[in-house]
Amino acid sequence: MADDHEGVGGSDEAERLREELQAARAEVTRLESDAANAVADAESLRAALGDAQARIDTAALDAEELRAQVTAACERERDAAVRYRELVLRAEPALPAEMIVGDTVDTIDASAAAARDVVGRVRSHIEAQTSAARVPAGAPERAAPDLSAMTPQQKIRFGLEQRAQG
């Protein structure tokens, strides 16, 4: 009877081990499937990474081309500003060249406007000083002498001279 007891206990143990083995095999199968999915995902991610790297490389080339275009445009703008400054100075020779400054057309326009303002104020000031100091050409205008300061004899002489001239 001791053998029966051992046989029954051994049978339960074997059954439990078979179940564990089946569960372990199912787990291995699941893990193999997960590993295969992970490998597929990794391949997909590698492909996406390759595509992204290609787009990055293209964007870097585009950015470099745009930088070159911007640099060329900036040089053209500076050259145009220099030519514009020369035209402003030729068109308005009264403006002091040292006052016309700038790297762009807008800054040159602003400095030219300020120079025009200064030149206009200087001209007005010089004209005001000149007209104040201006002496009319020729003899001064003759005014009648102050008769109240003359003696009677001077008044008679003055009257006779006026009659002789008139």
Please give a quick description of this structure.
The protein has 166 residues and is mostly helical.
Helix content: over 70%
Structural class: mainly alpha
Q: What gross morphology would you assign?
A: rod-shaped
Number of helices: 3
Strand content: under 5%
How many E-type strands? 0
For the residues shown, what is the average pLDDT? 89
Which residue ranges are poorly predicted, with pLDDT under 50 across at least 5 consecutive positions? 1-5
Textual characterization of the structure:
This protein is mainly α and 166 residues long. Helix content is 80%, strand content 0%. The protein has helices spanning 2-91, 105-133, 152-165. The N and C termini lie far apart (182 Å).
Topology:
Blueprint lengths: L1 H90 L13 H29 L18 H14 L1
